[in-house]
Amino acid sequence: MGRGDGILGTNDRASLTSRRKWLKTRETWLVVLGVVLHAVYMLSIFDIYFKTPIVHGMDPVTPRFHTPAKRLVLLVADGLRADKFFEPDSGGNYRAPFLRNVIKQQGRWGVSHARPPTESRPGHVSIIAGFYEDPSAVTKGWKANPVEFDSVFNQSRHTFAFGSPDIVPIFCGALPHSTWKTYPHEFEDFATVVDDIAARVYNLLEDYYRDNRTSYIFTADHGMSDKGSHGDGHPTNTDTPLVAWGAGVKYPRPISSSNHSDCGFRFVDEHMHDAPTPTEWGLHDLERVDVNQADIAPLMSTLLGMPCPVNSVGSLPRDYINFNEATEVEAVLANTKQILNQFLRKSQIKQSNSISFKPFKPLSDYTSILDQIEELISGKDYEAAMKLAENLRSLALQGLHYFQTYDWLMLMSVISLGYIGWMIYLVIHVLQSYTSLPVQLLRKEFTNYQRDDYKKVQFCGCLLMGVISTLLFLERSPPLYHAYTTMTVFLWTQIFSEYQFIKASWKLLHGRRVYYAAKILATCAVSVFILEFLVNSFTERKLYTLYFLVAGVVGSLYLYKSIPWRSGIPIFVCAVCWFLSVFTLMPAEIPENTYLVIGSGAMIIVIGIAARWLDLHAGGNKYWISLCNHEKKKPKFPMLFLLQALFVGLSSIMVPLSTSHRTQKQELLALHQFINWSIAGFSMILPLFSANSLLSRLTSIFLGFAPTFLLLSIGYEAIFYGALSLVLVAWILFENTLLYVRKVKRPSASMKNLEDNVLELDDRYLQLFDMRIPLIFMVLFNVAFFGTGNFASIASFEISSVYRFITIFNPFLMAALLIFKLFIPFMLVIAITKMNKLPRSGCYFLVILVSDVMTLHFFFLVRNTGSWMEIGNSISHFGIMSAQVVFVLLLFALTNIYTKDIHIGSVNPSSQKAM
Ligand SMILES: [Zn+2]
């Protein structure tokens, strides 16, 4: 905020020390607050997104009709997708001749749309119990349904089941009236013989009973992609075949009109209603009825004349059942009442706990609708009754969604307000502690802090917290709701108690020119733009390529304008940014290529030599003075650089040596293992002994971590290490130019406030333009991760790299080594924040501030539908951003070991006396 001339009222040493102490306490307090806040808000996603939709306490609706079917056979083919089932194979033969015949002669067919996650357990649950994946299954690691539920099997008199050991026990494990068996895991690939099984089962039952009172349903739990994977919402995964025939099922009917208009209705997988049937299926002349997967459960129950499973959200597909009009209406009504019961139960649960209950308005008068339907049925106006019943059912489904998301608005507002409050609180802290703003305010005598006001605000805050907690307690809200609201109210109380400061700052800003306000706005806009870009880069790492292409051009143009003499620096900056932009185009799964690792070793040594040369020969130039070793005395360890370069060379020799041994199916030699560990361990200690000028220390850190990184590398990521370092050098040059230009323009201003400033001696006040530092930091911090992979590629991490360190399978040590490998580029990025002479804690809080803009966005991007991977990724994105408050702090502390005694030279010789 402009330059402070340092006319501080507290010139005496004692009060300065006490202010520094106060600042330390406040920083610690903020870190603790940040950690607690992120932990609490992190948990909120389980109350918002991952709450089970299943309720208990509904009575099954006993049907008032009789059906022809006495028994039903359900055949589920695992992972059989619709088009593979219906279309002919390459030889022109249809794969399922028996079922095809059934479709043409005997029954009905269609596509059953599964909702992602298209996995076996959720698929079977939606077929047999009639509801889709319970998002709270995430708490069980997707392995089980966390809440007990009702199924078609529960309602039956007896169930015979034979199937996969992963599936059958879910439904029959606790069912007394069931006889079940599972096949061993090896037999799971039976999709090809499924038609044969269907034929045999059909013939067996028909021959045995000879009463035409058996219904048959054939379907699949989910589809499968061409690669054999499943789980997401791709049509190959969600579209499964459905064939029904036998007692109570309609016969085939030729298609009435081929007019496939999109009526707007969407299936659970968001696919269009009335999609045209592919001609190669050879079925386009037969009426096809598509359903949602959960509709199969009420279909089965209705065919058997049983109550629908009480937790089902499926709608009875009328086009499958062959009942007379009166029975059909009764069947739909039973299905409607069963869904309505769930709605009423949810409504009742909510109402009993709420102080001000907001009912679902469209269904406030559901009894009169039910009466009306009964009246129409007794008046034999079945068509109108059917319409009303179906309308009531869809309203009840909407009502279920209404109560599922009842608390969302409140919770999301509280959490968002909390994050915003935290960010504002950070801004206030940064302004008060690391900028010259308090000094300016003091000079203009804006600040006459009134403790009375402060106490009043605190009191009001406590009162509000108490009131909200009491209300939540009366509503019997979960304990975490208290934590969310308390945290949010607490933060805003802290903000309001700084009211005087905010008002004074606002007045000061008001007094400035419009230009300054515009500058602040522009900074905010650019920051948000870059952060949004980073949010998107989590799913598309190629964005970094674009970013670095642009950053190279912008950076070098800026430098070209700023540096008054002819210089190669702009070209260098542009070249290295473009070089780094290549890596995010490479595949996330790193292909093995030992030559690249060796080449990278050579490149690292060359970079080291260049930096060394610069360090030794450019000390005289004023531009380089703050970077290089200008104290002309001999370094303590003159051989250090050679030793480090030797280690890098040695490690790049060890890479092919140890790898070739492993490819010959041989164990890693104990000697190799010993050498690798020694190189890695020893080389990381060496940077501590290097000369303490910026360039030599950073070069030394760069060389010190290189051997470990090379030994953990398998391909192009080894080169990435060098490329990232070059970009970091470019950033250093950029910052140095800014520093140099500023000093040349105003030699004294930036130095003067060091004398009596609360901050550490080497630091200067933050200014608005310094916002670039956390932003550039965040970009580099993220590219340090995405440059060599993405989230999916960590999960399937190439573990062959760790085999240069360990011979036996040891997951913990392996994970530790791989995480350490991820850490190394982060350390490089953090190490260079030292050079800006900024207060490091101020930098840290700014980084947390910008990273929380991303956290807030990721909070809204958490999703509870989609494949398990998509859901898991959305949670981990949010979780990783939430954890930054600890993670970045840890890295700052770790790198501080290496960078704390860096001495930064200065144009102004008088400021060196303190060292
Ligand atoms: Zn399956």
Number of helices: 31
C-alpha-based Rg, rounded: 35 Å
- Bound small-molecule species: zinc ion
Beta-strand percent range = under 5%
Protein name: GPI ethanolamine phosphate transferase 1
Organism: Cannabis sativa
Subcellular location: Endoplasmic reticulum membrane
Membrane topology: Multi-pass membrane protein
Describe how the helices and strands are arranged.
Elements: H1 13-48, E1 71-77, H2 82-86, H3 97-105, E2 108-113, H4 120-128, H5 152-155, E3 159-163, H6 168-172, E4 178-182, H7 194-209, E5 214-220, H8 235-238, E6 239-246, E7 291-292, H9 296-304, H10 325-353, H11 366-378, H12 382-404, H13 408-434, H14 437-443, H15 451-474, H16 479-497, H17 499-511, H18 514-537, H19 543-562, H20 569-581, H21 594-617, H22 640-663, H23 670-685, H24 694-711, H25 717-745, H26 749-752, H27 772-786, H28 791-795, H29 811-831, H30 840-861, H31 868-899
Parallel strand pairs: 1-5, 2-7, 3-4
Antiparallel strand pairs: 2-6, 5-6
Bound molecules: zinc ion.
Zinc ion (ZN) binds at residues 78-79, 120, 123, 221-222.
Pathway: Glycolipid biosynthesis; glycosylphosphatidylinositol-anchor biosynthesis
Family: Belongs to the PIGG/PIGN/PIGO family. PIGN subfamily.
Pfam family, one: PigN
